[in-house]
Every structure is written in structure tokens, then in C-alpha cells.
Model the fold of this input.
Amino acid sequence: MKIIVSGATGLVGRALLPSLRADGHQVTSLVRKQTGTGSEVLWNPAAGQLDAAGLEGYEAIVHLAGENVGEGRWTEEKKQSIRDSRVQGTSLLAGALARLATPPRVFVSASAIGYYGDRGAEVLTEESAPGADFLSGVCREWEAAADAARAAGIRVVSLRFGVILSADGGALKKMLTPFKLGAGGQVGGGEQYMSWLTLDDAVGAIKHALSREDLRGAVNVVAPHPATNGEFTKTLGKVLGRPTFFPVPAFAARLAFGEMADALLLASTRVEPARLKATGYQFKHPQLENGLRHTLGK
Done:
């Protein structure tokens, strides 16, 4: 299959490209600047620029690009950048795909479980209503930005990713130093749910979405066994062989991270991967301890 990938240098993209190529697919990256390292198509979402002719002839698009929500405090400027990087890029790409002489069969676009907001212990499926906070609004706009592709008859899959576990980036990488030093602990009361998955399963879910013709619309990409923050903390400490006696009170998290703390550290999102399970996806790491041990080589 001929596939174009945006966000190829991000955490998921760096793992996805070699996996797709190992499966025999021909993969091209959407890039802002030519690197000369492989097949590339130029675009600049912020400027509304895209080499649309370069998209002709591809069977699938995987769209992963978007500013990192976990870097820096959420100033109004940062929040606008988070929204624009997702909505503008998706809209630009979907519109260009819809106008192609031969559109691709499938457009797999990233989203996030931030769609649901802070929901306590409520079990959330793809049919659950969205939340009402900043990230929920971003995710709603992000997914709707692909409407032009849907209207053109392209199969659109919006992958609502949970917390992706990797020692090379994301939330887990930030946790490792304090936990290894024995200074790790739960955040807030520890009862908030964290819906996670390994990087291997993030890649596996994308490949599943590309291949399953019956999969479209929103798809929760999380492991089938979410953990509370307290459970996650204890399990990570066990895997690392370190104590976890230093909790971070909610007020301290808010002082350190501002609004981002409520959205990413204190919010509770208990998500069920209903559509992945219904279409036969086999998780490589369904249990947290096994997933952490694989991720950390323990």
C-alpha cells in the first residue's frame, strides 16, 4: 500500500514508519522542509500551504501532526497553538484529499481521549458524549475538520489515543527520573483514571485501522484495563523496584502546571476500546505491569 504520514518525526510516527516499511508498504512523509532522507511531500499548515499534486496516487493517509500538549504552560497563546496545529492541519489535508482526481481509500487521523473530559469512574465508549473543557473542544473541532474527506466518500477513522507509554517520550519519560530516584508518588487523590496503552499498541491500532474496511468514525485507542493514578504509581514503582512515598497534592500540581494539571494530571478518563475489540484487534500489552515491563525493558 502507498501511504503518506504526517507527524512522522513525533513519538508515534518514529515507531510507525519503520513498522509500515517492514510490512512492505511504500511510505512518504509530509514535511515542512525537505530533508532529503526519503520520499517527502511539502506542506505548511499554518500558512495553508500543501503540495496537493504530491498526494495523488496514495491509497491511505495517516495524520499524526499536532503540537505537544504536555510541553510548557497553557497560556492563551499556547492553547491557540494547540488548537490551530490540529484543526488547521486536518482541515487543509482533508480538503486537499477531497479534491483529488483519485482520493485515497482511507484517512486515519489522530485525536485523543481528551474528547471526553473529566468523567470520574464513568466507563466511556465511542458513543459517550464529549466533555466541556478546553481539550474536549479541541478534539471536537479536530475530528470535525476531517468532514471534507468524509463528504468525498473517504473512509475516515479518528483515533482517540490515550496516554502512550514510551521511555523515549510522552508522560512516562517525564515520570522516570523522579521515580528512579525514589521520589515518585501519586498525583492528587490518586483515584483518577488513566487510560493508557503501549507504543507498540498505538502502532498496531493504526495498522488495524488502515486494514479494516469496516472501521470508521471515532475509535478509542487505549488498553482494555485502565488504571487509577494510584494503581499506576504503585505498578511503576514495582517495575522499577523503587518506593513511591512522595505524593503530589492537587494544589501543588496546579501551582506547577496551571490549567494543564487539571486536564492532564487530575482529570479522570476511564475509556473502553469498544470498537477495537469489536473488530478483532489483539492487544500486545493489555495489562499495565506487562506493558510497563516491556516498555522499560524490565
About this structure: The longest helix spans residues 76-98. The first strand starts at residue 2 and ends at 6. The radius of gyration is 19 Å. The chain has a mean pLDDT of 94.
